[in-house]
Amino acid sequence: MKIPLFAENLRKTYRDFWGRPRTEAVRGISLAVRPGEVVGLLGPNGSGKSTTIKMVLGLLRPDGGKVELFGLPPSEPAARRHVGYLPELPDQHRFLTPRETLAYHAGLMGLPSSGADARAEALLDRVGLARAAFDKPLSECSKGMARRAGLAAALLGDPQLVVLDEPTSGLDPVGRHEVKELICELSRDGKAVLLSSHLLSEVQDVCTRVAIMVAGLVRAEGNLSGLLERRDAVRFTVSGLPPEKEADCRAALGVASGGLDVAVDHPAATLEEYFLEVLRAAREEGGAEGGAAAVADGGGAR
Amino acid sequence: MKRTVAVFARAAAASFALQWRSLSRSHFAAALLALLAAVVAVLPAQLRPDGTAGGARHMIAGWTLGVTMALLGGATLWAGCASVPGEGRRFAAVRVSPARSMAVFVGRWLALVALSSAILALCLCGLWVQARVRLPRAALETRAVIEPAEGALDEEAKRIRVWAAAPETDPAREEAVVESIRRDLRSDALLPVPPGVARIWRFAPRAPRRDGETLRVSFRCLSPYGSAAGVNGMLAAYSATGNGDAASPTDAAAFGRRVALVRLDASQDSSSEFEIPAAAAECGLVVVFSNAGLRDGTGASALVGWRSSLRATSPGEGLAVNLLRAVPALVAVLSLLAAVGLAAGCAFSFPVAAFAATAAVAMVWLGSSDAYDPNAAPDEVVHVHAASREPNAVDRAVEKAASGIGGTLRAVMAPISRANASEKLADGIVVGMPGALWALTADGVALPLAFALAGAAALRRREFP
Ligand SMILES: Nc1ncnc2c1ncn2[C@@H]1O[C@H](COP(=O)(O)OP(=O)(O)O)[C@@H](O)[C@H]1O
Ligand SMILES: [Mg+2]
Predict the structure, then answer these.
(1) Cα-to-centroid distance, A222 and ligand 2 (Å)
(2) Interchain pair A104, B10: CB under 8 A
(3) Phi/psi of residue B26, nearest 5 degrees
(4) Per-block mean pLDDT, blocks of 10 residues, chain A (302 long)
(5) Within-domain flag for A218
(6) Residue B30 contacts A, CB cutoff 8 Å
(7) What's the total number of domains in chain A?
(8) A36 and A134: one domain?
(9) Domain housing A48
């Protein structure tokens, strides 16, 4: 099968009505998501995560670069057949009930109407929506309930690629946990998942790969374990060491510990520490304020 | 192939359901319904008719229906404009789905048409009740117009040519002159009938629809000063027996048996109406207007239009049936407005779409208010130049473009303007079913599909930041 998501050197500058550049939101991003992978786009607010996602889905035309969904450009309906998308808030029609929301999306996807209701109920159960809320207009539902309905809509039709823009925003801690479980389940089923978030713990728990975005650029990318490993530090773990021997051990580090089991590894930073470090480096380097690079007045923008 | 169609239909159905729910669950539809109910309930009581049955019908079937259609049409147009922009970022989900833009457009358009047609149906029911309550019996009647026979206009053009001037020697030029007279007749231009001359309308044989049916012939002409009074003349109807191509209007015997004769008096308003048994037209009917001039043999020409001056009618089925006959033509208007609004909303934000669509519709409406006739003389180009300057290439190009656009718009709107449903309802004239259905097919379905193509293309090009 073709790789679900492939993007190369994407760039996007937001322009005003007259075409004058306002914000250089994305400045050259490459991305690939393979089946079974959960890729997290991590970055502070305004770093270009949503812009990247919208370009990937064909909602925005990139100023440069290339996107392919299952080997096709996103403008092809066939390319979007196996894509589920959860947009940023607000993402649902308030006058529809969750059941109607799913029926609407199922229709747009061209799914047959036979068994549609059972499918919708199963999905709404899966995202943890209370049964009582199935037939309540979303205007009467809480933000979290609406978010769950949106998530269910994104999972309609068993998509091979699921794109989630800040999936847990608006959810309570239980909801966050459930969504994390759901994402892990999706990756176990071999789906490709791309999610954006500024919540580090969330990304740390579910992602197999992360890309840290600052000011429209990827500053660090890789497997989570690889990124967090501290190559410049070594950790010895000595199990079962009597307290009185500790001083000797420390004194003669590297000398035989008397046949005891000694493990050596690189200590991992927490993702939070690492993230802040990347951010600090970016600031020192470019003076960027975390968010996107505003276009200087050379572009004529005021 | 079958699957593609099914997928398209499902996406269209989903878009239909969404649009229907969005309108019917918002306060928009309810407010519109309340407003229209108020119009239908209150307006007929407020309007002061002139006391005649026709005047009363004009108030209810003309004015009230006109106001209803204007409000409903405007609301449909704006609801279309608001459809896509009103969803804002929520529309992103539609763009990411594999649904075809065309399916999305068609579904939403059908929902707009269905909803506004349903509201129109309610309004028409209300109008009918008002008409039953307020109108005298005579005003509830309708009349079907009988068109002059095929070829009658051509014969008349040749006759006019004979007395107008000596023929041209060049046959091509002669034909061009006759053709220009034909065009004037067709476009209902007011042509002079000098004293001692007649205008002849011939009608094809027509069997009576039922026993005792009568045909009504109404005539009116203008004096050269544009006033209704001041013409002496005779109006006569003949039940055709012969072939009717008498060269001279005085040779009355050639028309057949005379069934009616009315004298028009200069002191009166040059209009007249009489009824004849429908059986008289069984072998064809000839109606002759002759200008008698003044008693002393002098006098002025009468101005007579081919269609507007003489109208032969037979009884129709009544107002209720006529309202039903008008429905396809009225729905065609709403359908076109929905498509225009929706296409504008696909391309622009709501304020821009609403402004552009409203301005465009207003211009077309004003521009095409004259019934379109493809054979009518081209519009005269009015030169608005400083007298000292000859039109240059740019002026000519602008004029050509303007008249081209005007002509195209009139041609495109012709089915609706020819069905002319609102005016016929107001006049108590039977709305022709073929014309109404043609209006629905051409302007209510085919033209909106062209807008659907444009709207879908705009939607595909649009970004959703
Ligand atoms: N529609 C828009 N018009 C102009 N600028 C925008 C628009 N959307 C986002 N931006 C700008 O682009 C940058 C990146 O935004 P976004 O991709 O939404 O960031 P994130 O999702 O990472 O928080 C921000 O500086 C934001 O101000
Ligand atoms: Mg975002």
Answers:
(1) 21
(2) no
(3) -85, 175
(4) 90 91 92 93 91 94 93 91 88 90 93 87 91 90 88 92 90 86 92 89 85 90 77 70 74 61 67 80 68 48 36
(5) no
(6) no
(7) 2
(8) yes
(9) 5-212
CATH of the domain at A140: 3.40.50.300
Instruction: Give me ligand 2 centre to Cα B331, in Å.
Output: 44
Residues 75-134 of B with CB under 8 A from A: 87, 89-90, 92-100, 104
Residues A52 and A180 occupy one common structural domain: yes
Amino acid residing at A192: A
Q: Which ligand is nearest to the CA of A169?
A: 2
The β-bridge relationship of strands A83-86 and A21-33 is unpaired
Angle at B144 between CA B306 and CA B131, to 5 degrees: 120
- Identify the residue whose tokens are 């999306």: A105
Which pair of tokens denotes residue B373?
């006739």
Decide: pTM greater than 0.90: no
ipTM: 0.82
Residues A34 and A170 in one domain: yes
Q: With contact defined as beta carbons under 8 Å apart, do A15 and A21 qualify?
A: yes
Minimum distance, in Å, between the CA of residue B111 and any CA atom of chain A: 14
Interface residues on A facing B, Cβ-Cβ cutoff 8 A: 14, 51, 54, 57-61, 75, 77-78, 80-81, 83, 85, 87-88, 90-93, 95-96, 100, 103-113, 153
Residue of B nearest to A91 (CA): B90
- The full set of domain ranges for chain B reads 2-141+320-368+413-459, 146-315
Domain co-membership, A156 together with A291? no
The answer to whether residue A219 is domain-embedded is no
Question: Superfamily for B146-315?
Answer: GOLD domain (2.60.120.680)
For B400-423, b/e burial (b = at least 16 CB within 10 A) is eeeeeebeebbebbbbbbbbbbbb
